[in-house]
Design goal:
The protein is an alpha/beta fold. It is built from 10 helices and 11 strands. It has 2 domains: 74 residues, Helix Hairpins; 208 residues, no CATH class. It has a 5-stranded mixed beta sheet with strand order 2-3-4-5-9, sandwiched between helices. The protein has a 4-stranded mixed beta sheet with strand order 8-7-6-10, with no helix packed on it. A two-stranded parallel ribbon has the order 1-11.
């Protein structure tokens, strides 16, 4: 073991390069510096950017920071010297897709390794030469592709937080059961429509392609009428995915495209907020978009996404031609 290798996982504060007792303003400035340095567009890497996003997710709001500090044990991270005296080193910020290679153990759950079905590549990875338009073998074997797009000179904190949470949800709860699934972050489909066709995330699994986005709302109970989420005191319109879904369906006629929206609050909880459908919300004439299922919180979102991907004709297959077409659309 090298002398400079860390003896324990880095805390969120260490990832962001600050002391645990810095002010909120100092913490925000540190996040912006770290995000710029870690972004692939400025010489960083997807793994480094994911680690920064995960760290900011843990301490980016006063409420989240208080919960994180309590998780550190001892007197809390805000107390001087707490980083060196606590007994628990805190959560590990591992890059997305990080699993123990030798055992396949999902480190985020701590449970036994999932029983994975063999992945079938079409065409096989041994095919040589690689047909035109087919993704090469090395990238076909990767489960994660792309990185969140930088908007302007400074990072969009809220957007990065939402994207990081979606990626962590997929890593922990979806990918262990779908070994052939491939996650693509940051698809740009052009400007044919009046609104942007940028896609935050997409998951390809066999002949199914799920287009994913997210919206953050205040905690509470919401009703979904097919167009907006309404709590009586707050109304939120989910991102419009229909134009992107139509464009991708035309580009990939052999793939069935679906769209789902994750609804989240500032609490990293699987069951909140509560989203209820009003009578008639599922009627086609009531729908404002082409969503496969109503917008939902984490647990229901994962259930609908798993159902959509798992009911395809070949969920154990990686379609390398479709992957090639999608990778070409990455930012």
């Amino acid at each position: 073991m090298s002398a400079d290798r860390p003896s324990r996982p880095r805390t969120a504060y260490e990832v962001l390069g600050v002391a645990p007792n810095v002010s909120e303003d100092e913490l925000r400035r540190a996040h912006r510096r770290a995000a710029r340095a870690a972004h692939p567009d400025t010489g960083g890497s997807a793994a480094a950017f994911a680690a920064v996003a995960a760290a900011w997710e843990a301490v980016g709001t006063p409420e989240a920071r208080a919960r994180y500090d309590r998780s550190l044990g001892g007197t809390g991270a805000h107390a001087p010297g707490a980083a060196s005296t606590r007994r628990d080193p805190g959560p590990t910020f591992t890059p997305r897709g990080a699993r123990t290679a030798a055992t396949g153990t999902d480190r985020s759950s701590g449970g036994p390794p999932p029983r994975e079905r063999p992945v079938v590549f079409v065409p096989p990875l041994s095919t040589s030469p690689v047909p035109n338009g087919v993704l090469d073998a090395a990238r076909s074997a990767r489960r994660w592709h792309g990185a969140p797009r930088r908007r302007g000179l400074l990072p969009d904190d809220h957007r990065q937080l939402r994207q990081a949470r979606v990626l962590r949800l997929l890593e922990r709860h979806l990918l262990p059961g779908f070994p052939a699934a491939r996650v693509l972050t940051g698809l740009s489909l052009g400007g044919r429509f009046t609104r942007s066709l940028d896609v935050d995330h997409a998951v390809l699994c066999g002949d199914r392609l799920a287009v994913l986005s997210s919206v953050q709302v205040p905690d509470g109970v919401y009703t979904w009428d097919g167009q907006v989420l309404n709590s009586g005191r707050a109304v939120a319109a989910p991102p419009v995915l229909g134009p992107a879904m139509v464009t991708l369906q035309r580009r990939l006629p052999n793939v069935t495209v679906g769209g789902l929206v994750l609804v989240m609050t500032d609490r990293d909880a699987m069951h909140t907020p509560v989203v209820r459908r009003v009578r008639g919300a599922d009627d086609p004439e009531a729908q404002a978009d082409l969503l496969t299922a109503p917008p939902a919180a984490g647990r229901d979102f994962l259930r609908e996404l798993s159902l959509f991907l798992g009911t395809g004709h070949a969920p154990e297959t990686v379609d390398r031609a479709s992957m090639g077409a999608l990778v070409e659309l990455l930012y």
